[in-house]
Design brief:
With 137 residues, the protein is an alpha/beta fold. It has one domain: 3-Layer(aba) Sandwich (Rossmann fold), CATH 3.40.50. The chain has 5 helices and 5 strands. It has a 5-stranded parallel β-sheet, with helices on both faces. α1 crosses α5.
Length: 137
């Protein structure tokens, strides 16, 4: 079972994420303040963190940067980050925050599910070669 942490002060954003992931084998943990993200990541070690861009006191970009710095220092586990943006022009900020993916709100539930599934799927490593139908030479 995958664990997803969603950080948003807007109840509608947390509801949208929880509803979109309800049918999947995913546990959703919610926090309402950006400064609580680091504590929750240290405690629950989620597979994915979904950050709303507009969280009072500490927004999604600041929380993403904080998580990267804390992971580099070994104080929290490294985790993938999905930023929920307010407008298309915010993609620049998501890139600066080194988010693994970003979506512009309001988010279509199907798009959110596909993005989460992609972020939770293991990336092929160097030992994993693509399957081919070609016979060895």
């Amino acid at each position: 079972m995958a664990t997803v942490l969603v950080a948003a002060d807007g109840q509608w954003v947390r509801d949208q994420v929880r509803t979109a992931l309800a049918a999947s084998d995913t546990s959703v943990i919610e926090v309402t303040r950006g400064q609580d993200v680091r504590i929750a990541v240290a405690e629950y070690a989620p597979d994915l963190v979904i950050l709303d861009m507009q969280i009072a006191n500490m927004g999604g970009v600041a929380a993403a940067i904080d998580l990267h710095l804390e992971a580099e220092a070994g104080r929290v586990p490294d985790t993938r980050i999905l930023l929920l943006l307010d407008r298309e022009h915010d993609r620049f900020l998501a890139k600066r925050a080194a988010a693994d993916a970003e979506l512009v709100k309001p988010v279509d539930p199907g798009t959110l599910r596909r993005t989460v599934r992609r972020l939770l799927s293991p990336e092929p490593g160097p030992a994993t070669a693509p399957a081919t139908d070609a016979a060895p030479v």
